[in-house]
Amino acid sequence: MKKVSIAMLAAGIVFLASCGGGADADKAKAAADSARVADSLAAIAAKEQATLDSIAAASAEQARLDSIAAAEASASAAKGGSRGGSKGTTTKKEEPKKEEPITNMKGAAGKTGDAPKSMKDAATDTKSSGGGAKSMKDAMKGK
To answer: Do residues 119 and 136 lie in contact, with contact meaning Cβ atoms separated by under 8 Å?
Structure first.
């Protein structure tokens, strides 16, 4: 019985020693985690500051471009001789001309005759014209 109690006492001491020594490891882990979190927060703050700096730089550039445009507008108004001030003067831009869609296929391909209506007609036109069009696609286009 004495041997069993000594064995039990030794097992209890080993058990208590293994459970009690983790406080230092927990403190070290907590310190490492807090350092990692602090680094992450610093990186996020740096990104936010970079974004704010970029926005401020873009705003300054836009203000510079606006002032240049305003100076050019006032210089062109003064150079052209304004009648009654420069307010209300706008330059009218010409709109590009719109092409009307082709409704009649005659002359659409640049020929005076009718354009072929099917691939069969295009093939016969190609054969009779002496090889004017190189492909069926060109024949349909009227080339």
So the answer is: yes
